[in-house]
Design goal:
The structure is a single chain. Residues about 425-430 have low confidence and may be disordered. The chain is about 30% helix and about 30% strand. Strands 2-1-6-7-8-9-10 form a seven-stranded antiparallel β-sheet. A six-stranded mixed β-sheet has the order 11-16-17-3-18-19, with helices on both faces. The chain is α+β, with helices and mostly antiparallel strands. It has two domains: about 10-190 and about 365-410, 3-Layer(aba) Sandwich (Rossmann fold); about 195-325, no CATH class. It starts with 11 loop residues before the first strand and ends in an 18-residue tail after the last helix. It has helices at about 45-60, 60-70, 70-75, 170-175, 180-190, 195-200, 220-230, 230-245, 275-280, 300-315, 315-320, 345-350, 395-400, 405-410; strands at about 10-20, 25-30, 35, 80, 85-90, 95-100, 105-115, 125-135, 140-145, 155, 190-195, 205, 250-255, 260-270, 290-295, 325-330, 355-360, 375-385, 385-390.
């Protein structure tokens, strides 16, 4: 079911992070589809959270984004003090920088922000630096701001008279005007999914029209109805993936209950296997057809509900049109039977032809398909309290391209690790 549609350049092509949570320093290049693979507590979610911090800081404010994460002390990286294993110091600042591709004309942009503590404790945080460059056909613009010793923000880059306090960002202000508005809209449109089964099941008030799946799974029923009405071919593709994931399942649909929407699922109750697929091929899979029974959301297994949430995040209407330029999903394989997980990768790959997709996983089963090219993997590991993220070595990539069936087993055995940094260092691939 993998799409032959040509993949577009990734929206976020490179991320540099310093001093953010467990990320002491990393420089990660991303593709249209990227799988962050690593064990529990290796720092996969911290990497995604660094990208999400940029979105949240622009959408609300740096202060609110920091408070959402438990305060500045929780965000800044803790460092072991030399010779004092029972004591740790906290970094003074963190930096997050992203390189971006803008559709549809191939524009490029970079955005960087550095935030730190206030030694005088007058402010909850200080924006030490913010810079932005935007390269569009026929137009290049940029700005940068730095905090002076007098705690004033100097602004360079053709924005005369801009005055900022030490806690605020400039891009949300200039993003009201062209051409910075393109960059701001795109960054605000990124979506970061950490789905919760109870939220996916809940009733949704249709008197407020929702066109996007919420980041915990809100509005699933409404989005399912919208997908079926506006993009029936993708709704059928989504049902097709669900048939491979969940035995005897024929499809999942919106269910209306007065002014509220939720989901329901159609299951096959006749003889298994061949009659099931005969019914699918004959399109005899709807309520009222022989051996088709409808189950409501509260009757569905966690795997059914979560699988539907993952696929809806990938194929929701605004992801199909790249209005959502980036979709990230935490551990999409949760609650799916290990024997069925690998087909999720086909869905991830197909979705990445229309919007950028990043997922985290600790599951070897997700990688147990020859469709996984080693170039999509970014291995994540924790070494001495510091997260390392990197591609596989060229030697390992070549070996896995020749022997793709080895990938999942090498992952199970812990033999896949980030390649050693160019200047050496810990955690070199074995």
């Amino acid at each position: 079911m993998t799409s032959t549609h040509e993949q577009a350049p990734p929206f976020v092509s490179r991320v540099r992070v310093q001093g953010f949570r467990s990320l002491a320093e990393c420089d990660v290049r991303l593709g249209p589809l990227t799988v962050l693979a690593g064990f529990n507590a290796s720092g996969k979610s911290n990497f995604l959270d660094a990208i999400m911090f940029v979105r949240d800081a622009l959408a609300y404010s740096p202060g609110q984004a920091i408070a959402k994460r438990g305060g500045l002390e929780s965000v800044l990286r803790r460092m072991e003090s030399p010779g004092e294993s029972d004591r740790s110091d906290i970094a003074d600042s963190f930096l997050i920088a992203v390189e971006l591709s803008l559709r549809p004309d191939g524009g490029r942009a970079t955005y960087e922000v550095c935030i730190g503590r206030d030694p005088q404790e007058e402010f909850t945080h200080l924006v030490l630096r913010e810079s932005c460059s935007l390269h569009l056909p026929g137009e290049d613009v940029s700005f940068s701001t730095d905090l002076t010793s007098e705690r004033q923000r100097n602004v360079d880059g053709g924005i005369p008279g801009a005055r900022l306090n030490p806690e605020e960002l400039l891009l949300p202000i200039v993003g009201r005007l062209a051409p910075y508005d393109r960059l701001l809209r795109a960054l605000l449109a990124m979506r970061f999914y950490d789905l919760e089964t109870d939220v996916l099941r809940q009733l949704d008030d249709t008197r407020v029209r929702r066109t996007q799946l919420g980041e915990r799974g809100e509005h699933l029923g409404q989005v399912m109805g919208l997908l079926a009405g506006q993009h029936p071919e993708f709704k059928e593709s989504l049902d097709g993936y669900m048939r491979w994931l969940i035995p005897s399942l024929l499809g999942v649909d919106q269910r209306l209950q007065g002014d509220y929407a939720t989901i329901q699922a159609r299951f096959w109750t006749g003889d298994p296997v061949l009659p099931f697929w005969n019914a699918v091929n004959a399109d005899a899979v709807h309520p009222g057809d022989p051996h088709v029974q409808v189950f409501q959301s509260e009757q569905l297994s966690e795997g059914t509900v979560r699988g539907m949430g993952v696929l809806t995040a990938l194929f929701q209407p605004e992801a199909l049109t790249a209005t959502i330029p980036l979709v990230t999903i935490e551990e999409p394989e949760i609650a799916i039977h290990p024997a069925r997980v690998a087909c999720l990768f086909d869905a991830l790959h197909e979705a990445s032809h229309r919007t950028q997709v990043i997922v985290t996983t600790q599951s070897s089963d997700l990688l147990d398909t020859e469709g996984v090219h080693p170039s999509v993997l970014r291995m994540v590991e924790m070494v001495d309290g510091v997260t390392r993220i990197g591609e596989l070595s060229e030697h390992t990539k070549r070996n896995l391209i020749k022997n793709p069936s080895h990938l999942a087993e090498m992952h199970r055995q812990g033999h896949l690790r980030p390649a050693a940094p160019a200047n050496g260092g810990q955690g070199a691939e074995r």
